[in-house]
Amino acid sequence: MNKLFRLPFVFFLFSLPFVNAFSFSATITTPVALAFVAFFTLVSFERFVFDRQMSSVFGIFLFSITISSCLNMVAFQSSTPLNHLISFIICYVLFFTMPLNYLKHNRGYALNLLFKIIAIGVLLSSIVAICEFLVTNFFKMSFDYFPRPAAYDYDYEPLSIGGMIRARGFAEESGHFALYLISMYFLTLQYMKDNYGKVIVLTYSVLVFIALLASFSVSGLMFAFLSLSITYMIYNFNSPLKMIFILIFFFIFMLSVEMLIQYLTGFSILFDVVLSKLSGSTSMSDRSLKFTTVLSFMSDSDGVLIHLFGLGPAFYDTYGLPTLVTLYPLLYVQFGIVGLGVYLALISYPLFYAKLQGIKIDKYLFCSYLFSIFFFLGISNYWFPWFWVILAVIVSKIKLEKKIRYKISI
């Protein structure tokens, strides 16, 4: 592995938490800039290879969204639709294919290096988020130490239900921080357990859990529990008693934490945050109203092509409609049934491929993937690098397992 490429890639991995803080602008974030550097270094010194199966599916997706763009091109008001198309290409090439190329050169060493650097980022982000929460809520001091270009554009203030200031680490919003924190925590958990003692792993996990609570992210809490439950059901299907005990223990633990926080602060995460938001908060109502407005516009439009290929990228700019902040409805409105279907095939293909090959994905890696899939029910930020890196790790591990089996068979 060429050291000239390894160093930019290491910097890229270190930059993963900084999708907003320390960025050059709302568009040119630190991970994007460093991914470009790592990419150009790679193509200069190594052979850059696209994964054949994944790239075939992505090519179909790119073709479908190009059709969507052409069908709506007459109504385009600016270059925003083109920027959206480029964004998908950047995500696939820089955040998925570039890490995959690095991992294929020395998979065992490269994967451990990746996990180690990401774990350091998760630990640093957790500590910063906990400090942020304590400083802003108990010492009543500002914690505005990091330049945040995207947040400045609309004067975002991370208030939660109840008036507490939510921690957001290095991300733009608390929900985005929760996606990073838990997805990357699950991604690195098996590595931590394999390489460090129980005390270090427990400390690591406790800090992440406290940081998640400090973010007051309903999606983070709910989808973490859901993804853990489903993962344990799948991986302990032949041991139902063990699965039941684990779920009961987890439920008792969460209930104990809820009671302790309520006793110390008088603030209930379950009632003041989770149930309040799920039963019709301003955020939930706003999202439902926007989606209903857009669906009504699509229903009033003539032609089946609207439903097959959507209103095109950046439809809100083209047709003066409200934007959507959840990924799957957004993809349906932009690219129709075809585009959404192919995108779902793209992100789920590694799992089906592993199943066909008889390869079992590590449970914590699967949990990381599952959590991210669920979380996109709450946000639309597919352009964050975290999920694409998870996909790269999954594909890399599948190929490593196939290589090992091939050598054994010989």
How does this model look, in words?
By secondary structure, the protein is an all-alpha fold. The protein contains 17 helices and no strands. It has one domain. α2 (30-45) crosses α4 (80-105) and α7 runs antiparallel to α8. The mean pLDDT is 83.
Query: Shape, please?
Result: globular
Biggest sheet record: none
Give the helix level as a range of percent: over 70%
* Helix-strand string: HHHHHHHHHHHHHHHHH
Which structural class fits the helix and strand makeup?
A: mainly alpha
**Please, what is the average pLDDT?**
83
Count of folded domains: 1
Gyration radius, in Å: 22 Å
The oligomeric state of the chains shown is single chain
List the uncertain runs.
Answer: none
Count of separate DSSP helical elements:
17
Number of strands: 0
N- and C-termini, Cα separation = 26 Å
Précis, in short:
Helix content is 73%, strand content 0%. The chain has 410 residues and is mostly helical.
List keywords for this structure.
410 residues, 17 helices, globular, mainly alpha, 0% strand
Helix and strand topology:
Elements (H helix, E strand, L loop, with lengths): L2 H12 L15 H16 L6 H21 L7 H26 L1 H31 L11 H4 L21 H22 L2 H18 L2 H18 L4 H26 L3 H10 L3 H19 L4 H5 L5 H5 L7 H30 L6 H13 L10 H24 L1
